[in-house]
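Protocol step 4 of 5: obtain the predicted structure for the target chain.
Materials: sequence only (see below). No template structures provided, no constraints applied. The aim of this step is simply to have a reference model before the mutagenesis design in step 5. Sequence pasted as it appears in the construct record:
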Amino acid sequence: MKTTTAVVRGDFQYILTSPEIFLTNKNSVDLFQSSSFQERLVGVLIDEAHCVQNWGIKFRKEYAKLGELCSFLPSHVCMMALTATASASSQKEIIKLLGMTKPHIIIRCPNKPNIIYYLEEKTQDIDVVFKPLVEEVKVKGTRMNTVIIFYWTFNDCSAIYYYFKDLLKESITDPQGYSNVPKF
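Step 4 output (structure tokens):
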């Protein structure tokens, strides 16, 4: 209750919360609708706005309900939605779901010169695909550039993890909190 009182008084410059707290907690809803809070409110920022569309349908339904915020917002309050992964059609859907009218859209190329995307279809043997990377890790160690390997299934991730662990032995450390990664 101390925090709620401090928020009502305007003690905080920024408030970070989740859609679930913001839309389903009665105290949060009452606070958001209070005139003292709304007078101080300048803007609402939704980071990773693509989650409104991607998660809001089935996974975290409150994301899709973030558009309800517009019905609570005074006219002086701005809403900003940020995403780096929305196609043009996704942008339209996000704008609709958030209830935004006449948004100002800024598009910047997310390409970074220090990031390289390399796709390898999962048709080859794991050794053919990853052996060169293992050898590079052995030579460069911690001086090697960061590499992110993405697979869709936990089984594939587990197989890749144990492939590296078996070949790199004590040079590899378990992720913090995951010393017993299941092996499939």
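Step 4 remarks: The chain has ten helices and two strands. The first strand starts at residue 43 and ends at 46.
Proceed to step 5.
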